[in-house]
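User: Hey, my collaborator sent me this sequence without any context and asked if I could get a structure. I don't really work with proteins. Can you help?
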Amino acid sequence: MAPPSRWNLAAARMRPFTRAILGATEGHDVLVGRVRYRHRGWNGERADAAVDARRALDELELLAGAVRVVLVGHSMGGRAALAVAGHDLVRGVVGLAPWCPVGEPVKQLADRRVVLVHGDRDRTTDPLGSRDVARRARSAGADACAVLMSGGDHAMLRRAGEWHTLTTGLVSGLLGLAPLPGPVRRAFEEGRDPATSD
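Assistant: No problem. I've predicted the 3D structure and written it out in structure-token form, which is a compact way to encode the shape of the chain:
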């Protein structure tokens, strides 16, 4: 229930992603923002991170109107992004090593485009959880896939440049500013997960 530390490592790790997305979308009418959580944890049924993400989307809608949104979240932030994907503004979700507990709801992902990227060396969150959510999301009517990052870890430090490049390509593609990366585009067309991102 405590507020996140000012020196929050997870938030610091997302700064290079923010810079990469800003660079990739420069010259387009794109706004990039960050959700600040009021509490450190998910906190059971309170789902505090999802509540804060939903509040941020509502505030964005008041400020900017009916804009297209692609959510990017890491770990618990990925779970929060998936949880609020049913919001009217959301068109897509990029989950980076998302925390996907068994039985996580997926109905809210219908008619959304969802890409979950997970390192095969992640020991904090389970890559199989991402695959399960992607599979069930497809059954619920989403374009969804899970990409396994060979050699990737939870902190996304191994192959960091490739994590950044893939994420910016996904965000640009989901916003319609550029083609989706080939393996993800084919996965959406074929209704399956790509093998790996090598």
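In plain terms: The mean pLDDT is 94. You can pass these tokens on to your collaborator as they are.
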